[in-house]
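Quick note —
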Amino acid sequence: MQARAYSNLSAAVILASCAVATASSAQVVGRSALTGLQSIKGQVTDSGSNPLPGVEVSVVGTELRAVTDSLGNFRLSGPLRDVEEVHARRVGYQPVSVQVKLVSDSNTTAIRMIPLNVLASVEVRAQMLSERLVRTGFPERQRRGVGEFVGPQSIDSMARHTQSASSMLRGVAGVEVSCGSASRCSVRPKRAQCLHLFVNGQFRPGVLDDWVPAHDVYAFEVYPSANRVPAEFQGPLTQRGNNRVNARAGCGALVVWTKSRVIE
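Predicted structure written out below.
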């Protein structure tokens, strides 16, 4: 009886051990089957596209880590999901996280890191530019909620995709833009007879593209309705009898501030 009981106990222990081993294998095989054993390789560079050695690169949520070599290269291998977040850090640089979509057994990604002192100078410059724009009265008029305003951040994005200053105004409420060529367009108001053009606060006859190139635009103010135009942008006055009156009182106003004037 004792021998039989011992035999049964040994069998139970063996079965339990097999169950634990199977469960453990299932966890590993399950991750491998779901994601596969793959690699993420790439290069880390600085803001000047120079290779950056000594950067710690890791896959978020895993133990996978690597340090870039003298050429900024790294490689991470292991069971990976279809989309992983890769994190890079090094003393003196802003940490960076990028999402990597695994599409093959060896996936290449590029990571660019920015020095902390460069970020600080960019923030200071952005603040300085904003202060200079304040002097034009732009923010105060914008707070009144009259007219349409396009600020420096939006302008920078628009400038990459347009060849003329006027074409930047496509999509701005209250105006229509028509182009005879890629570099010369005209802007017309939808609710006024015409638009007075002001460049850096000064009235200018003609069309915007004759006065300001796209790369020099800093900010726009658009007043498409004649009755909503601020007093400082009412247009030129002309002498009628003993009175000086606005010769084109039914016009709206297009105001542009340039980088060459506002920044420099």
